[in-house]
Amino acid sequence: MKFSNLSSLASRLFPAQTVTVAEQLHAPLLSDADLADIIQHVQAMDLAHHQPRDVHYRQAGNFRSIYLGRGLDFEEVRPYQRGDEMRDMDWRTTARTGKPYLKVYREEHQPALHIVVDRGASMRFGTRTQLKVTLAARIAAVIAFAAMPENTCIGGTLWQPGGFTLPCLNGEEGATRLVRAAIEPCPPLQQDTQQEARTFSEMLRELDALLPRGSRLVLISDFAQLHEQDMPVLMRLASHHDLLALQVVDSAEENLPNVGMMRFFDVATGRLRWLDTGSQRVRAAFSRRAAALHTQQRQMFERIGVQLHRCATDDDVYKLFLKVYEYE
Hints:
Elements: H1 10-13, H2 32-45, E1 60-69, E2 73-79, H3 91-97, E3 101-109, E4 112-118, H4 132-147, E5 153-159, E6 165-170, H5 171-182, H6 191-194, H7 200-210, E7 216-221, H8 231-240, E8 242-249, E9 261-265, E10 272-276, H9 280-303, E11 308-312, H10 317-327
Parallel strand pairs: 4-5, 4-7, 7-8, 8-11
Antiparallel strand pairs: 1-3, 2-3, 5-6, 9-10
Helix pairs in contact: 2-4, 4-5, 7-8
């Protein structure tokens, strides 16, 4: 699919509508104008050409894979081994050397992309520009639209109470369905609903059992639920798939603003707490704890050979992808 066909895609995701102030809480996270802008940026930055080319997913397609076997791209010549098929013989090399040789080709497979969008309680927060869950939906849209022209098989998982998985579909159909799900309204969760949420390990194990090995797996989350005990299953995911970890944060989670006495709701314990944000000592302690947590999370991913990329709600999301592709 050519990018010239993308300009009208956003208008088909959601019909144009006027949202009143009372309806904003239950409005889509991104409007059709936002989606059109994302598509234009994807086209201008030519992100499609930065997608991984060597495909791990073992399904017939049109792209170079990591597997050797039957295909159109010649890879190498090797000596004949018992059980090899005669139709693959390289007769010229055999005649020249006097020993039987075979031609080996690079198989062509279809790339598979699975995007996980965290829409849990801690993601429904933001103090700068947008909610974290809105940024997560924006990142997912950029990745899906960038992969669409390559006819990638695109699927996804929504992490939220009553969450669901979208099996992969090719090209525009897969991208459109995933983006539509990612930008669904995301009001604050009720306390009883939060208690029904599954643990991070459970959600990771479900992914590992669901996805075929070699998929391109993108995790978009604040990783607030990630703990040391989750590392074995996360390591297994990284060994089975091409894993990309994108962390969504808000500036207020790193440096507490000075707004005097404030009441906070702890989504982990369900308790209400008062903090004097006007105290420099409190703000300094908060910043130290936040920095230590970030270092711990980064080191956890480094141990499994995965780079953790961070993006704040007031950052330029497209600069994130320049860093990601530079790293890759």
